[in-house]
């Protein structure tokens, strides 16, 4: 196939697109004309029915008027003759008016009763074929003002008919009492004649209103029909113009498509090729020649395409050519061999060229992806290796461990892994900086690699943790050999930017037990063993023993659960009131955290806070407590109003400063909850007066109150009380429990109260359980108390209910 043939084929395809586009336009316009024509018919039908309905109402009005006039004439005859037959004629004439009235009332409601309306219109002597039009016009035309006016005139006429019946009844009584043609009867006739004149005016008003309805409907439906007809004509003119335009553009489109596809074939970025069914080259575009480093004068027509394909990829190319013969497009990565230079990797797309059912050739594109493949290889290395040390990372380690376990199952051998953790790494990293820590990790990686065999796989998991796979490992002793070499390698000092540092290792060892053990389980056992080794005095290594290490494993699970307690929403806050000992009013609430463990149940702080402070989980717990307490206080303010306690007290651990900056999340919690700092009281221990004086000054400067908790049990000097700002002293419950029997405890309490008064701070006695204790403490000058006497710790809703009950007017 020549280049010209290709371009014509492309142009024909593009021209076919124009025809398809025209076909879609024609379908859309045809549908539009059909809808417009349908609307035209609908408008005409509605207009004819509406006008017929209006005509029917005018005809009905004439019947109504005729019946009314007949009724009045019958009354006049009855008044002059006293003939009861004329009165009955009056009654019979009014059945017409009564029937129309029933029809109007049946159609006036939100749920029209068409059966009653039909019977009413029939009694009103309306033509049966007009009744459906009349009911439809009444229901649909109620929103039209002229029709509303007609219905209002109709209603007033029905009211006058009712009055006419009443006057007729009076007339009959006068005739029976005084006789016909008597003076009272003539007076009554004058009243009836006046009603007749009023009815005539209402009939005229109804006719005029129905005339306006007819004019309104005629005007608007004429406009709608004319507009629709105009759109039909405009659409017809547009379609004819568009057909002419498209027919003129077809030849221009063919020329344009030839130029466009020639530019596409000759563009320099993508190689394009064409071969015959046997794989001989028909055409290479300039980009394809450049990719294969061919001279512009070199002829390639007739050469086999395999001449430019690496030998180990030729079978794959032939397989793809057979797939195209079967009618499938193909895409493969192929190594090409240019005339000069190194081989390159190309992404080749191909498609068959068909004439009828026969494949007469193949055509496609070719893009050099050598740089991309190199980048993918580098990215794959980065994904599977630690960027700092160059060692495999945890992901690659787990893949290799899984393969090693599979090989062990086939050969019946065991696999051992070593979980290695650097001792005192945190001291170096925190003391000398992260750059020094990185230098230590790289030196440690070098020592580990020098201590193991080439076939052993070592990896860095992250931080200061490393792993080593040993296969095969027939016994614990075989695993101890490399472990001892590693421990020995770390026996010498590290030189970190001129600073000497001694860093040891703790090694956990685990051997695969049976064929069912997976990689994750084996690594978990080695991790537990390392955890045991790190806590054993003088030990560098430990082999996992499921019987001996069950407690350590349980402890480790408990520690992991503790780290996730806040994010799993397992923590809860209980509140214990601090009351005014004289008024017994709740002044402050102390927030007390509890842990609702999924398996161990509700845990008190003494069961987990110590571990949290040791591991650093205290920062997550503390942040959660301050956020929840702040939100709870904001909720109490909105619900309790003026009865809300003055502040909420939250305990702050000294350990929170070792692992982070609690002041920042205290501020963030108050800001999110939109509460003032003065409503949040921070409770600290005496030891923090010495360890964190700057932080306490910062907390005080930001406006938060500070309370010294468990006062008397620590070692804070009076000098520290003078230097560090605080607002409250809480006397520890150990002094309250026996102060009535112990003069020493009583003296200490009196001294603390005296110091507090001189310093101008609040004094709170903790652990009050007896009324006598509260009375004596108040007499000693202690203003506030906390303990089971007043309330045990409880959930927020229970404490709020207690506050609302105490503040109710009935108390």
Q: Which key phrases capture this entry?
A:
about 800 residues; alpha/beta; 21 strands; flat; disordered N terminus
The beta-strand count equals 21
First and last CA, distance:
105 Å
Query: How would you write the strand order of the largest sheet?
Result: 13-14-16-17-18-19-20-21
Q: Which structural class is indicated by helix and strand composition?
A: alpha/beta
Q: Count of DSSP helices?
A: 26
Taken from the alpha-carbon principal axes, the silhouette is flat
The profile of the biggest β sheet is:
8 strands, mixed, barrel
Oligomerization category of the chains in this entry: single chain
Report on the architecture of this protein.
The chain has 811 residues and is of the alpha/beta class. The chain contains 26 helices and 21 strands. The protein has an 8-stranded mixed beta barrel with strand order 13-14-16-17-18-19-20-21, surrounded by 5 helices. Helix 22 links the parallel strand 18 and strand 19 (728-731). It is flat and about 145 Å long. It starts with a helix and ends in a 5-residue tail after the last helix. Mean pLDDT is 82; it is low at 1-15.
Q: How is this fold's topology laid out?
A:
Layout lengths: L2 H79 L2 H25 L5 H10 L4 H13 L4 H34 L4 H84 L4 E5 L5 E4 L1 H6 L22 H12 L4 E7 L7 E12 L2 E11 L1 H15 L9 H18 L4 E7 L2 H8 L1 H18 L5 E6 L2 E6 L5 H14 L4 E3 L2 E3 L3 E7 L7 H17 L5 E3 L6 H15 L6 E10 L5 E12 L3 E3 L5 H7 L2 H23 L6 E5 L3 H5 L2 H12 L6 E5 L2 H5 L1 H9 L3 E7 L6 H6 L4 E4 L1 H4 L6 H17 L2 E4 L5 H10 L3 E2 L10 H11 L5
Parallel strand pairs: 11-12, 14-16, 16-17, 17-18, 18-19, 19-20, 20-21
Antiparallel strand pairs: 1-2, 1-5, 3-4, 4-5, 6-8, 6-11, 7-8, 9-10, 13-14, 13-21, 14-15
